[in-house]
Amino acid sequence: MTWQGWLQIAVFAALITAAVRPLGGYIARNVDGAGKVQRGFAWFEGGLHRLAGVDPEKQQGWVDYALALLWFHLAGMAAMYGLLRLQQYLPLNPQQMDAMTPDLALNTAVSFATNTSWQSYGGESTLGYLAQMCGLTVQSFMSCATGVAVALALVRGFVRRSSQEIGNFWVDLTRITLYVLLPIGFIAALVMISQGVPQTLGPYVTATTLEGAQQAIALGPVASQKVIAALSGDGGGFFNVNSAHPFENPTALTGLIQALLIFVLGVALTNTFGRMVGDERHGWALFAAMAILFIAGLAVIYGSESHGNPALTHIVDQSGGNMEGKEVRFGVGQSSLFAMVTTASSDGAVNAMHDSFMPLSGLVLMANMMLDEVIVGGPGSGLFSMLLFVIIAVFAAGLMIGRTPEYLGKKIEGNEVKMTMLALLCVPAAILGISAVAAVLPAGVGGLNNAGPHGFSEMLYAYTSAAATNGSAFAGLNANTPFYNLTLAAAMFIGRFMVIAPVLCIAGLLAAKRIVPASAGTMPTHGPLFVGLLIGTIVIVGGLTFFPALALGPVAEQFAMQAGQTY
Amino acid sequence: MADVLILLVLVGAFAAMVGYAWACRDLTRVPEAEQKADE
């Protein structure tokens, strides 16, 4: 570990913490309320609603909200599937890329519509510019806006009293896109272009190498896609190696900006939550829980990567730490920070090969995703996943102290807990169930490039990444096969929509309740004690669910490595 | 043929999701008598 490494971690933490209040307040004012920006662009927003035939005054119950969301994404997936299958006939395809195979097109359409951005293909060798811009980039905006919309609907459930309504999906989607994603994305794209990230519709450039060979240098509208991929928690790379590519991440500043963009909406929404419920301290409590889990995970990764591989000390100089799979420009410090940020959020962009991280680091990366996106998570999805754990925490605390569990004046009763468990069990069921099937079928085992526990980790990581809508890859797994494309698509679908439906149901249930005034017996839910209870709940639930699977993968590999065996 | 099958799978998955949302609604329905007693 170096002081430079810790300095960049400290700068990142300071900047991200500084952004929480201003951006959180901006979102609360302009997406859920009528702030200055919203009032200034109301004419434009109104025009869009009229064009789409949406009545912005009409409020929706949770079932209508969920149906609107589902149909919107069905249409989005079908359109993207068509775009990927027909791209050879469409314009803006200067390299004349051919159609994707049906299974790969389905995987990609589901991947981007679910905010996962799992990529079983190399962008620069598979997709034309139209598919990159109108397919991937549009879905990045829409899937992100959907996550934030669901989180706001859930928060309205806590705020509203005796109401059947939780908002209007179309209005939420429009406002988040117009007032949050577009302006931040536009400014960030200009900064990225100034740093050397390409933004062109011209064809690839052919260069003659020193040996005289011809080399195609891939270009394209990279900056516009990269910023929304980071901001939306989507993380899809324009190039195959994502942020390890010098055109996608050319300088130290672009690396820092990407890491900030990945986290900023997720952390800001904790403050939006606090403002909407009328007490910012509740938002800070959630932020504190996220921050403690983040720092703990980062310390393990950075320490483990700096130490290097003890089984190789006699063969390789590891004074700079474990440099296998790292981009030499970034080294261990920034790679550890970026890996922690990308798996703690639901982003999945990478600037190093996670497959080459030490087993203990690999365990933390997987655990980040297995904890259901609670350490910041994706925009919106991190907040609603954290609120699910809050419901479990207050329920457990209520049982311990013998009082009806309450949170923000809403009684947490059987139905809310049932729906919370349904939402929280979908992701483990998809990860563990499908991994188990893949581990025994020849089609699953055939995709592995490593044996033993490391091979199992590759498989477990892939399904964890898909079901947690993260999208990062451990690498080493040949995932572009019909078996992996279809099963990973199923994991992404379950991990996104089977969680969102019960979350919206909880929003509807809570909105219908009265608000009980706080009394002397009400458990405080904004102090250090509650933060500790929340972290304990997250770690125990996550640990109990996934420990057996992790023991077969990274834990076994760590012990084997200490005994001198590598895979 | 594969395209038609895949689009059917997509539509089927969403139909299942609509059913799932409906099941959530039924799971959480509180009997009227119980609701009145609460009030």
Q: What does the secondary structure layout of this molecule look like, with pairings?
A:
The complex is a heterodimer of chains A (about 575) and B (about 40).
Chain A (H helix, E strand, L loop, with lengths): L2 H30 L3 H5 L1 H11 L9 H24 L16 H12 L9 H4 L2 H31 L9 H26 L10 E4 L5 E4 L4 H10 L20 H25 L3 H28 L23 H14 L14 H12 L10 H21 L4 E2 L2 E2 L2 H27 L1 H4 L6 H16 L14 H30 L16 H35 L5
Antiparallel strand pairs in A: 1-2, 3-4
Helix pairs in contact in A: 1-8, 1-10, 1-12, 4-5, 4-7, 4-18, 5-18, 7-8, 7-9, 7-14, 7-18, 8-9, 9-10, 10-11, 10-12, 11-12, 11-13, 11-19, 12-13, 13-17, 13-19, 14-15, 14-19, 15-17, 15-18, 17-18, 17-19
Chain B lengths: L1 H26 L4 H7 L1
Characterize the structure shown.
The complex is a heterodimer of chains A (567) and B (39). Chain A is mainly α and 567 residues long. Helix content of chain A is 64%, strand content 2%. Chain A has helices at 3-32, 36-40, 42-52, 62-85, 102-113, 123-126, 129-159, 169-194, 222-231, 252-276, 280-307, 331-344, 359-370, 381-401, 414-440, 442-445, 452-467, 482-511, 528-562; strands spanning 205-208, 214-217, 406-407, 410-411. Chain A has a two-stranded antiparallel sheet. Chain A has a two-stranded antiparallel sheet with strand order 3-4. Chain A is globular, with a radius of gyration of 23 Å. The model of chain A has no long low-confidence stretch (mean pLDDT 92). Chain B has helices at 2-27, 32-38. The longest helix of chain B has 26 residues, at 2-27. Chain A binds chain B through residues 63, 66-67, 70-71, 74, 77-78, 81, 85, 102-103, 105-106, 415, 418-419, 422, 493, 497-498, 501-502, 504-505, 509, and chain B through 2-3, 5-7, 9-11, 13-14, 17-18, 20-22, 24-25, 27-28, 30.
